[in-house]
Design brief:
9 helices, about 30% helix, homotetramer, five-stranded antiparallel β-sheet, alpha+beta, Chorismate synthase, AroC fold
């Protein structure tokens, strides 16, 4: 069970290795009638593309997406949408050394233990390159969310010790600086910090925050399929993620109930409001109609230029120095990946939610005589 | 899609409301031939049972489990095991007021938005009482893990501001103090703190830690079904959980790569060792053979005796005081619930892992001629 | 993977053995707001109940259903509905002989090969008694279909060599004669034939036909999840079924295309009509708005009073005579089981169908502001 | 839910339209370590390829398969195998007329009802061309079955009124005559019959039979996931299938129990034998170790050259004559498709079966220390 499929009703299946011929994704369960072009998808892929900043790997890949099926006359047909991105930057390279050792912090050892061997040319399926397919699928999910009026805002909250000051929050900054930070001052500091790490041939971690607006109340399923549970799974499925929290998150553990409970109020127009949002927009696994707030902690890039201790595949203790220029941070390029995974999850749950009540189900049938 | 089923191969489906006739679980996919009695399950249920400490709700429920199917002559048959626990503590009670308002911090509002109405006699499916069924299923999962040599240790790491001092770690303390803390000194401080909160009619949150030993390397599936991703889903599916982290967790975000990478070494006996375990036993979503370490943050009990602001189901602003004695902390009774969810997830993944390699699959067939 | 769950969105999980404490089913994914009582379910269970005719097993079971969860104030809550039926007719009985041999035509041998042992007191999960749970779940599915305007008519088409003459078709006959035949003349002949078989301590097979009216066009999913494919799975999951066909069925194999193609026409009111229905209401796996027609072939009851050759569990050749009175035909009691499986499948597919088009999905959101 | 995924553990997802850029399949859950080349797959694709006989559509497609992922150094890696076949035979063509009418016997009408529009250039996902992807996946499934010692034999049993005489059975004939018939005399008659149909611009149906040898006893899951139930679903998922039966099939309905029950015997070497195989190798949904036997009825090709009555998409009554040369029979090219679907299903069930017993599960762990 290779585990490359995500979602129940809006289902994506990704395939491809970092150093294989191509990567791709099949999206099954996308409703018919949505306008869709390659440009809609390329827009998001370009945000993830390598080689765009001094802090991202210099591997140049155009990452050009091609729609192979599921779209006819510019609209989705309701059948599987197959997307492909060719790997064009495959140089001949001597993998002899890499093939014989386990890089620290990488999945080399665990893949070998599981499968008995591995595609040593890169991370294979554990490579960050695999997220290309997620971003492509996410772009389609975001098109669906737009039609329903749901917006997602995702950004770098912190890099190493430098955190965004929310009083400086500027949404337009997010995709205009190299680091995805909505605060130009923090971005400048973080860039300096990253330069230092890079010079030391070291790397650093960071935190991404994601806010969802416009999601109706009532989305999410009880017990095991809670909305936050599935979002957490989606986010932890991104390589390098070590922590996920919603609303008050870990700080809720030190709060008192009287602080942490969000009080509901009716405003003067009779609309429901909340005085706080420590719940992060989800209670009992179901959305409450207020913004979803979550944070995702990423570990530092494991590929660093420093000499590291490890073992060879034969079990000998060795010193390993991985050549090449390394990306000192994963976070900025992961912003659009986090957004994609949140979008894909939300579409799946919005579809599930439609089926919660008999009155809504009857609505669909009443309006469509003699055919579904 | 009500979401009450968990697991792919070892699959549990829970049912029942806090104030209904009974609660139960159907376990489908339990292999044949495992010795199983009601006592095996009761042992764990007794750890979750209410009314055992000054800090747990005084509702007295014997929570007696009954095996209805799937066991014959003391062994599992390979077919569904149905377990039932009757709700015996259902007093007549006037629910008029509760039925007309949304309790802050509870899922009352979100369930109403989703389903159009709700079982107002308690939390329904969002009640902590639902976890009875998980604990029952978890006891069976733990029996399977025992046969394979996997052990889980779960405990309260912190309550409000008081955290366990690991230099005092004593495993025997966990189920001997009321709070599930493996450190008697911290437990004493936490008890005092809780007494204060209780007197203020307030509550507090806390953190549970879970350590898994003996899990082989190679367990977990790539990409979306990473072992940590599924454990996170399992843990976030427990009501009141707001954060989950593995290994270094959120602190990895401020570490450098050279710190965070765990170095592999061969020891003098040729066995693989790791110098650190910041990965928490999982890399690339696959176990590395070292202890799995995760932490789970719980919010404070939302039911508190203080007067709180909220709205009625008619949308009027009201002040609500929920009567009765309230449990000032969720964490101690949740320890066995966390353990159950981890156990259930691990069994499912151990089973999936068997199918990763053709040589292992052939092994099974070779050893069993003319029949599977 | 014990395989006791059916359905994707409207999902049922059955449990229980023929000679265990009880049988039951958990229905997950039933929308909220449907009026439901135990009587609604009992009505169908009474049609399957043993001991009602000279041709059904004399085992007397009241088969009284109890709703344990998922219904509040007379309406479904949207959370799992747990139903239980206790086995009350468990006499002490000497199973020594049965436990040591494999009954021909029964699953004794295959269960032993699979699980290493079996519950020898009856068929365990392979017993026809397991269908009690399906009928209970089917009653709920039929309530949902009623709300949407779908009707199912199911009846015995043939018993051994005697087939219903459709020119005598009388729907009221179906549940008024013992045999479920909509033709009183055929029913009389079949009863005589069965009496003969019974006297010979032998049994016979038969065919059940099922017609669905009122199903909208557009229900069913392409490729692997075709509506007929899933109905076939549902029907073959009933023990003793050996063949399933839709519309022209096996006879289509000898027809020419010009005969077999159903021609579409607009009638004078502009409504679409079909001149024939050889497709049985399904083309490309999707309903065409005309009646679904399928036929299901049942093998003879394997339990017969005659002496039969078989082997013991030790592998010795033996002659076996199974004592007790035996039911000479499965078909009449299976009519309501076939209907249940068709109903359960249709509900699942109607729910899936809602998600085929973006315009329908938007409809649901547009009509429900600020909440799902 | 577009329904293009099949299987639980060995899972295939197909995509692509008959007149799109390409068709493909992603195989997820294929164990690591199986030698696999494009030739292994091409071999089966060549059996399905059009333009090879006077009775198959003259559309010339090389149907060249390309492996895009999941294979490294000639062996499967355990991660998704992505296969692609480009559509090369796309001429410019005037689809105006076809786009405005519903072809009788095709899914044009039902797809339009479901999705609101359709890819009118061909059958889209309902085209027989979709089965290319199944055959490619089936070739991989068959490689796995070979390793375990399971063989599948599939052939044309009848074409229109002409049926194979089993006393002439010659396995080598199957892929040497154009019709997949294991009897050269029947094949000659069938060819003459088809020529007549072709001259009349008409078509005919037929039956395919599939025999599985070497499958161990104990494969299949109880209740809803019976082996025959899933095989039936797999077979009915092939377009144009109208009936499926196992063993005695529909004829079981007219047999007596004493005839239909297969008697078990121990032979002189102590091996279990069956005196008959009316069960077709499956009892209670579980294989009994004897050959699986099933038959699949196909309707005639719906595309015929004769003038047919139908309606336009605007609802007008029209006469339609579909130009071009038409294939007078589906059956011969469907032989390898039936075999593929059976193989895919069996692999999935063999994998599931491994998990039936704790002793087998422990075997895997015992033999693999410190790692899975």
């Amino acid at each position: 069970m290779a585990g490359s499929t995500f979602g129940k009703l809006f289902q994506i299946s990704t395939w491809g290795e970092s150093h294989g011929k191509a990567l791709g994704v099949v999206i099954d369960g996308c409703p018919a009638g949505i306008p869709l072009s390659e440009e809609d998808i390329q827009k998001d892929l370009d945000k993830r593309k390598p080689g765009q900043s001094p802090f991202s790997t210099p591997r140049k890949e155009p990452d050009q997406v091609e729609i192979l099926s599921g779209v006819f006359e510019g609209k989705t047909t309701g059948t599987p949408i197959s997307l492909i991105v060719y790997n064009t930057n495959q140089r001949s390279y001597d993998y002899t050394e890499i093939s014989k050792s386990y890089r620290p912090g990488h999945a080399d050892y665990t893949y070998n233990m599981k499968y008995g061997f591995r595609d040593y040319r890169g991370g294979g399926r554990s490579s960050g390159r695999e997220t290309t397919a997620r971003v492509a699928a996410g772009a389609i999910a975001k098109k669906i969310l737009e039609e329903i009026g749901v917006q997602i805002t995702t950004y770098t909250l912190s890099i190493g010790p430098i955190t965004v000051d929310k009083t400086h929050f500027d949404k337009n900054e997010i995709f205009s600086n190299f680091l995805g930070m909505p605060d130009p001052i923090a971005a400048k500091k973080a860039a300096d910090f990253l330069m230092e790490q890079k010079e030391k041939k070291d790397s650093t971690g960071g935190v991404i925050e994601c806010i969802v607006n416009g999601l109706p109340a009532g989305v999410g399923e009880p017990v095991f399929e809670k909305l936050d549970a599935m979002l957490a799974k989606a986010l932890f499925s991104i390589g390098a993620v070590k922590g996920v929290e919603f609303g008050a998150g870990f700080s809720a553990a030190t709060m008192s109930g009287s602080q942490n409970n969000d009080f509901l109020r009716s405003n003067t127009e009779g609309k429901v409001e909340k005085l706080t949002n420590y719940a992060g927009g989800i209670i009992g696994g179901i959305s409450d109609g207020f913004p979803i707030e979550c944070r995702v902690a990423f570990k530092p890039t494991p590929s660093i230029g420093m000499i590291q201790k490890t073992i060879s595949t034969e079990g000998e203790n060795i010193d390993l120095q991985v050549e090449g220029r390394h990306d000192p941070i994963i976070v900025p390029r992961a912003v659009i990946v986090v957004e994609a995974m949140v979008a894909i999850t939300l579409v799946d749950y919005l579809f599930q939610g439609i089926l919660s009540r008999m009155d809504r189900i009857k609505q669909v049938f009443t309006n469509n005589e003699k055919k579904l």
